[in-house]
Write a structure and sequence with these properties.
Helix content is 79%, strand content 0%. By secondary structure, the protein is mainly α. The chain has one domain (3-115).
């Protein structure tokens, strides 16, 4: 296995762990997460759909089922992380670091996925 694929798999695995940990937190520690969402100004009813989207996004990234679906998953995570950074920065709570790390991992994963010759079936 070449270095490009190793970087891709390691960054994607770390990103996956972060997203699955976040989704688990949303589900199993809902009361605390709801408090944070309220402080950030987000409605609490989006917690469960966001947790579901994170799990589905990770599945889409790892599955190599469909290239456009994988691209959309990367895009969805990008917007999630950018909005999280902006929200935490705007209220000044200093909790933007995890989203920044996730954004960096996402960028590395995406760029190295594009550099690899990982087979992806596509109907396009």
């Amino acid at each position: 296995m070449n270095k490009t694929k190793i970087v891709y798999y390691v960054s994607t695995a770390l990103l996956s762990l972060m997203m699955l940990g976040g989704a688990g937190m949303y589900v199993f520690n809902h009361a605390e997460v709801a408090k944070v969402f309220e402080v950030l100004g987000y409605p609490t009813y989006i917690i469960y759909p966001l947790a579901t989207a994170k799990v589905l996004g990770i599945f889409a990234i790892w599955s190599n089922f469909n290239k456009p679906l994988k691209e959309w998953a990367y895009a969805g995570f990008f917007y999630d992380f950018v909005l999280a950074i902006a929200a935490h920065t705007s209220i000044g709570d200093g909790e933007f670091a995890p989203a920044s790390v996730a954004l960096a991992l996402l960028a590395v994963s995406y760029l190295f996925w594009k550099r690899t010759d990982c087979p992806v079936s596509s109907d396009t």
